[in-house]
Structures
1.
Amino acid sequence: MEKLLDKIKSPENIKNFDMEQLEILAGEIRDRIINVTSNKGGHVASSLGAVELAIALHYCLNSPKDKIVWDVGHQSYAHKLLTGRADRFDTLREMGGLSGFPNSTESEHDPFICGHSATSISAALGLASARDISGEDHNVVAVIGDASLSSGLAFEGLNNAGHSKTGLVVILNDNEYSISKPVGAMSRYLNTVITNPLYNKVRQEAEKVVKNIPKLGPAAYNAVRKFQEGVKNLLVPGILFEELGFRYFGPVDGHDLKQLIPMLQKIMLLKEPVLIHAVTKKGKGYQFSEENPTKFHGVKSFNISTGKTGTQKIEDWTFTEYFSDKMVKLGRKDKRIVAVTAAMPDGTGLADFAEKFPERFFDVGIMEPHAVTFSAGLARGGLRPVVAIYSTFLQRSYDQMIHDIALQNLPVIFCLDRAGLVGKDGPTHHGVFDVSYTRNLPNFVVMAPKDGEELNHMMDLAVDLNCPSVIRYPREKAGQIVGASSCAPLEVGKAELLRKGKDAAILAIGNMANAALMVGDILSKQGIEITVVNARFIKPLDGEMIELLAREHNKIFTLEESIASGGFGSSVLEFCERENVGDVRIRCLGLPDEFIEHGDRKELLRKYHLSPAEIAMTIEAELK
Ligand SMILES: Cc1ncc(C[n+]2csc(CCOP(=O)(O)OP(=O)(O)O)c2C)c(N)n1
């Protein structure tokens, strides 16, 4: 039988559906999300929790004229299915297929590109203000999760929007979850709003009166509103949103279309800042993701009937797992070690440390700038903070890195996971800028391990340093480079010679040293012998090693999994220019000056000529 979903080519197609059909549609959308993500991976739990919100919004609004801005965008799969992308949904996150996030180049229904948390309110306010200036008339809605709402950026947006008085609807999608359990005062506050039975009872009584307003007249309405305000002030600390200039509606059941739709229809008529507090269940409609929303926040693939995701053997350990293990060891050995995460205890591998040393573990919420300055304070107080963070999310904290860490030369250790191409999450998540934006920070030592063992040694070194440091590593199996010389103990600014040859040299950083060794094997079969050096340090560079390589070779290829402009290779070029290093040609191999699309990590490396076979081809061509 043809499904309702199959008939939907644009949101217009659902406008004539009755309530029963909309509810059936919600079920079909959930089935499609589960089927496709079980295969392709993706953000399952958040998307399942936002199905009715997407249906209600598209039922009540006229997208693309009306603008819907999803925060992070990881919950937007239902929105994609309703906006003419159902036929391509099984290409989700594949190279050339649909993006896992809203993308304005993909659809006119996605007004703003996103992937990082808490941008929606600011972006929506910008769209609303542009609308006002242009004399247009449409609705602008931001949909933001409870954890993202606690970010500084979201507060800045709320603060400005409440003051502006323009027509803007913020839907707070409150599933009482971040990736793991949310933390912080905002979360506690929202919980009070939802669960305070006394407040809810009084509010329900007040609402009964409001329903009779036509009979009672506006004076009674105002009296009731004042009464509600008084009650809220009495029972709900702060009435935060109203004080910020928003009209607050809710809490409403975010899965009940019968409640949501009439509420949205009325609220869209208001031309002022409004916040709708919708309570949803993360993972709704799939037993395993409801029971374990953290595991199903983002998955690679899973078995639909058992809910099982892939398991990891020790030889398959990723850099994250090496980091996780080492943190526990460091924590045992050194009481000064404290760990800081911005809402990513699981993804960064800090969950074990948190369990073993809860008093030395800080999850500060999705607040990367705060995480950095907070760590500066911890370091100033005599501790050795390790900030575990994805490369892409640290971008948000650049001023804190300069002003609060580098300037004061504080020994904070930044462990940057997902540094390099992350694969299917695409351009918002690739960690390709950190080399360029950290290597120019005074006082910093910046390093990248070639394998898991070297990551351990770099962490030991970082703890001993009396300055800030960065260790960057990719979303990749860490492995162990067979035949490589032992890497302990590490000396700051000292590279490691891995292979000797006469025809050219590769100076590689991080896991690219591994690729360089494979390149050495490929080229050797063609009679070309290359030197391979594991640079280890992006800053300070091993000047002696570079001079030696320049003396012994005509060509040096630098190799990095990051954007080449301003990157590791550039720093080698700068060094050679500054130090008048002899007659050597340097070619910088890295990522081009453009945003890299989503797709399988290995496929992307091939496309951008950074797989061993491609690198070997480049070198062979250059040597000819
Ligand atoms: C700046 C930034 N930091 C971290 C993340 C990683 N991240 C993605 S979703 C998420 C949790 C979002 O929780 P919430 O806003 O409540 O939405 P939910 O997934 O619960 O629907 C986090 C921390 C991010 N996308 N952006």
Note: The mean pLDDT is 92.
2.
Amino acid sequence: MSNDPIARFKDLLAQAAQLGVEPHNAGALATAGNDRQPTARMVLLKDVDAAGFVFYTNVQSPKARQLSDNPRASLCFWWAQLKRQVRIEGGVELVSDREADEYFASRPRGSQISAWASQQSRELASREELMTAVALLTAKYQDRPLPRPPQWSGYRLVPDRIEFWKDQPDRLHERELYTREGDGWRITLLAP
Ligand SMILES: Cc1cc2nc3c(=O)[nH]c(=O)nc-3n(C[C@H](O)[C@H](O)[C@H](O)COP(=O)(O)O)c2cc1C
């Protein structure tokens, strides 16, 4: 059993990618704001290292409002082909502007335009309203590079608990929980 849950997570992610899981980096992000109503939705994991798990989104979206009320979240990954689940919990912080700028610049142009055009989760009068915004932005920027929209950035979930679940016969699944302890991790086994 590895002492490093991040290395272990990366290894699973690589295995999923190798098996052709598409997308292999999608996880359910759960948040709850002041109304205490938990909400889950999928996000794509764009970076992971010892500092934490990074995803990008609209920072005026419902999830972002919840994270500003209560900067804690959980991410849950499930790869059916591997029969593995990973659950992560911890505090959440915004990535630096530089990190967000760099990642935004690496995105396909269509995604950059939609990040500007979409006021994520706001009600639309019609699909045309969105497509008109896309057309206007496409014309406005033509061949110029798009800067990162101020309402678009990334969050880093800094884990304090990471649980690895592995399918086993007769529902005697293996569960290993890593709990942050000082600079390291305490590892415990959980009943299935
Ligand atoms: C596979 C998958 C990946 C997604 N990845 C992201 C993502 O990385 N960032 C994001 O903002 N929304 C992503 N979405 C859309 C979200 O699930 C959600 O609809 C959107 O972020 C609005 O959520 P909110 O209203 O709770 O803020 C993804 C959806 C799916 C199905």
Note: The chain has one domain: 5-107+150-189.
